[in-house]
Amino acid sequence: MLLVVSAIAIFVGTLTADGGSREVAVVAPLWANAAEAAEIVARSGGSIVASAGLSNVIIAQSDNPDFIASLYRSGAWLVLDAVKLRGCLSV
Prior knowledge:
- The chain has about 90 residues and is an alpha+beta fold.
- The chain has a single domain (about 1-90), classed as Peptidase S8 propeptide/proteinase inhibitor I9 (Alpha-Beta Plaits, 2-Layer Sandwich), CATH 3.30.70.80.
- Helices cover about 45% and strands about 20% of the residues.
- Strands 2-3-1-4 form a 4-stranded antiparallel β-sheet.
- The protein is globular.
- The model has no long low-confidence stretch (mean pLDDT about 85).
């Protein structure tokens, strides 16, 4: 169990967005729908690039250097680097 939890933590840690991330995957709370996820992006001053397939995940971008911190303040549970995420999950 510890191995599984550690592997998941490392995977999420490497995909977490940093200040240099241009496109991010915004993960809203599990019960949020697409409109609520889009509202988090709008409150943070970002623009929506695409949906990510799940109703609570949306791809967004912004030129604001404080965008990621603003997403967390607006209610995002997790902000991942969308470019890294596409690279890891594409087959």
